[in-house]
# Entry
Amino acid sequence: MSTDTHAPFEKDPGRPRSTGELIRLEKVTKRFGDHTVLDNLDFSVDAGKHVTLIGPSGSGKTTILRLLMTLLKPDEGTITVDGDQLFPASEKQVREVRKKIGMVFQQFNLFPNMTVLRNITEAPVTVLGMSKDAAEERARELLEMVGLSDHIDKHPAQLSGGQQQRVAIARALAMRPQVLLLDEVTSALDPELVAGVLDVLRDIARSTDITMLCVTHEMNFARDISDQVLMFDSGRIIEAGPPEKIFSEPEHDRTREFLSAVL
Ligand code: ADP
# Structure
């Protein structure tokens, strides 16, 4: 358990938000060489929903998050975020879409030479054009929410992995994203640090209306926060549904095998 206490998350009235369908993948295929990693994939996510991607390692889950972040391009198919098509898109359009999406990675990816405060204020100031004072005020609020107010002037190396990951979550939220992509954010953590990070994410899921797409092996967490669970196998969604259905009455043998291996 984490020893840091944290304030509840509150709705951020200034954060841009949409309603209805926010993300759509249509007939998306992604290959690396002759390996088809995503195979003619279709799915959509409505604004405010929490969708969890589960399935064996190598089934294509992270590739979806990387496509949405425009870190990769699909070989076929279309991806739209908030009505804007990602490929093809001009650099300006890609920048606009990226502003709507925050991502937290397995390996934190904080800037090692910057303080915690600066890690959080850097992008809002340089990318969103926020004033330094406003960005710092928001960073302090976010650090309170993730339970790290006492660590504001430290550098990442002075923090535990769990604390670094909570800074990374605060940094993603500081950009006021409509969508938060979470890529196995607890996989690199020592077991005793996992709960503190998941608690923060549960709070975000409960008390904000940010759309969340989450790749995780933490099945209890997935059960708690998800509106929908997508089960992947070999680049396809083989089963989708609400968590109570997928975890309690899976239809597909592969889902049953996967769950019995991880639960
Ligand atoms: P998951 O998140 O479900 O574990 P990934 O989306 O990370 O799966 O990977 C799916 C497959 O794509 C894996 O077989 C992986 O080795 C392969 N892959 C991912 N990125 C690359 C890359 N840049 N070059 C070649 N193969 C890749």
